[in-house]
Amino acid sequence: MSKRHAIIIAVGMLASASALAQTETIGQAGPKPATAAGTVPAIANPAHAAAPKTAAPAAASTAESRSAAALALTHEPTYDEGSAQRIKDAALSYSDLAVRGGWPTIPADAKFAPGAQGANDDLLRKRLIVSGDFSADKASGAFDQDLADAVKRFQARHGLAPTGTMTPRTIAAMNVPVQKRIRQLEASLQRLENMNFGFGQRYVVVNIPAAFAEAVENDVVVRRYRVIVGKTEKPSPTLTAQISSVVLNPTWTVPSSIAKTEISAHMRKDPTYLSRMHMEVLDAHDNPIDPNSVDWSGTHTPNFTVRQHNGTFNALGAVKIDMPNSYSVYMHDTSAICSAMITASIPTAARASTMCAISPPGY
Asked: Which candidate, 146, 139, 136, places its Cα nearest to that of 114?
């Protein structure tokens, strides 16, 4: 496969993955400065820069839909050839802030009301001025539209919904010490340097902590999807691979670990389970065998294979993307079964733009 078709399948760019991804995205290898999903210090994002656009709220707003709307506002790649240098620049900027004492802490119970003077409004202004999100000549005053726009800039840079409202998550993100931000950046830089990824004209990135995938062509994101990744107790691995094939309407070969535990448990309770789930049992030569001849006690490693037929009921959905790797990881379309099996909460409206990144041994 040529370099043109290189794919980076999974990038773990935060020190503690999903837990940090909720409030601290500065450690990710972020897009170029001044983008809606930017993750470099605002020193590289001047305070006079335009505030990020906000999408019209959906009828049923969720964290996933708000995040997807924010991502849709930029075509800048999360990971490109300039990511490492931008992280280095960001680390230097934050180191300079650390020498100067960092930023002030906002009280966790602070209240902010647009249009009204609050006890902590000037403190918030100072916090945003230090990080470059706000102009230094506006150090005092009530919570006006200019201050709300500065809050939006901060929120967009840190993976938060750019509402301009001082939510508890926004305050928590503002209060992360500058030294911790530096450690995140250094950890991300080390991971990227260890990848040694050869960028081509076309590649795909799965950002594990941010839970989205990008298809990049000519340095522009042409497709972006929400993805379902491993949980903290069963994390998705970080790896680089090449796409070898795209399978339409795939069958699903159930991993032996699932056949031994989940499938066996279902069969002990309901002998019709396999037929209802459109599954068949195969021997070592892929010949069908009678499910009644199988030991479903779950005490032994399965000496058979369980395979689900293709169709709308299939756990892999309509598309499977293969990329040979030592972790047996692949990507596939989502479906109701997929979402249920990995206990992910994905709104129905978002499923059309959602992919599952699955590692069969832990699926």
From this structure: 146
